[in-house]
Amino acid sequence: MKYDIIVVGSGPGGYVAAIRAAQLGRRVALVERAEAGGVCLNWGCIPTKALLKSAQVYAWCRAADHYGLTLDGEVRPDLERIVDRSRGVAETMSKGVAFLLRKNNIDLIAGFGRLVAPGRLDVDGVVYEADHIVLATGARPREMPFMPIDGEHVLSSRHALELRRLPASMVVVGSGAIGSEFAWFYATLGVKVTLIEYLPRIMPLEDEEVSKTMERVFRKLRATVLTSTTVRSVVVGADGRCVVEVEGRKGVESLSAEVVLSAVGIKSNIEGIGLEELGIAVERDKVVVDPFYRTNVPGIYAIGDIVGGPALAHVASAEAVCCIEAICGLNPAPVDYSTIPSCIFTSPEVASVGMTEQQARERGIDVRVGRFPFTASGKATAAGDRDGFVKLLFDGEERLIGAHMVGAGVTEMLAEPTLAKALGVTAHRLARIIHAHPTMNEGVMEAAEAAIGAAIHL
């Protein structure tokens, strides 16, 4: 069967590409070997947020007395029911994607897609043809040789989504978004968590002030944080416990835990899909593409986690729209990788866009910093969410170049700084935009005021 466009992979890159192509009048097929929606909807972004919400509600219940409430009886986490709810949320979203595909008359082809020639894709023995083939095959958890994943003692993020019993102790290796979110989730539910980071600070891609604040948050949860620490080996003992040999500031030592969670990054799904046979260029585990996601082979495109750039769902979706609109002759603007919002859904949350202060200073930018702590926020104080801050960075022309926030709901607040950065908004302009009171979002205005020396509440 011949299509205008075939998309391989139904994650937030693939299904968005397919739907946008169908909207533009193309005959489209979408190939998927597992559930519609890919890893994000089924085993990543969405089910993890469901878990985190359960932990947040549990934390609120434990803090009921602070709000003048009395709870009769004990509130206990039931991990099996928490996981069941999470899986239900994922299933609902997956069904939603399948509905959108049907609504847009997209053929969903089940199976594993492999390129056999330009314009030809083999799916489990059946060959389909298309003028354009878009690869959006995503990624999977990376496995390290010194920490082999067995799904019982040493877990990947996928295994951590399906635990049915709370372990007494857990070592989490890696403090990026995945590692930090799971560390917070299990620590909040009472697990003794040790968070290990190879680099000098946790959440190493975030601004240094963010890292320091979140390290304090984990310590308040009675989690152990080990930075500048290398994991040398993980061995499962005869008693079923994991012995983790690490080397850090105290030298070599052994840690013992019931389970270990490996959160050391992801690996692109590029094996066995025909790249080598067609001579498609690959560098460092990533498919080489131009600004419109064309590979070196005409008619073959790649988006999402298998190309360079942040491995984020919303980035894949943006790349999908750009790629498809270019294919369809709409002359889209390339994706602006300097303005990619990033979120970590711990509690408090972490949100950022643009350069960190260190990055800006390393580039010789005359940085003007505006800060606003949530301890000075009426809404944060009333809500009992005073942890965190808003930090805005402006260049010598007072244009916003970076925003870094820690606090309740800051992932929702991030849209305003992202838009402001994209539009080149200045500190004066941002400071004079009227923000509703009382809101957490006033912190953006207050930080901008601080940057221009006009802070009212500091």
Can you describe what's shown?
By secondary structure, this protein is α/β, with parallel strands linked by helices. It has 3 domains: 2-141 and 267-327, FAD/NAD(P)-binding domain; 154-264, FAD/NAD(P)-binding domain (3-Layer(bba) Sandwich); 348-451, FAD/NAD-linked reductase, C-terminal dimerisation domain (Enolase-like, domain 1), CATH 3.30.390. 32% of the residues lie in helices and 26% in strands. The protein has 15 helices and 24 strands. The strands form 6 sheets. Strands 1, 2, 3, 4, 5, 6 and 19 form a 7-stranded mixed β-sheet that branches. Strands 8-15-9-10-11 form a 5-stranded parallel β-sheet. α6 links the parallel β9 and β10. α3 packs parallel to α6 (177-188). The longest helix is centred in the N-terminal third of the chain and has 25 residues, at 79-103. It is globular, with a radius of gyration of 23 Å. The mean pLDDT is 96.
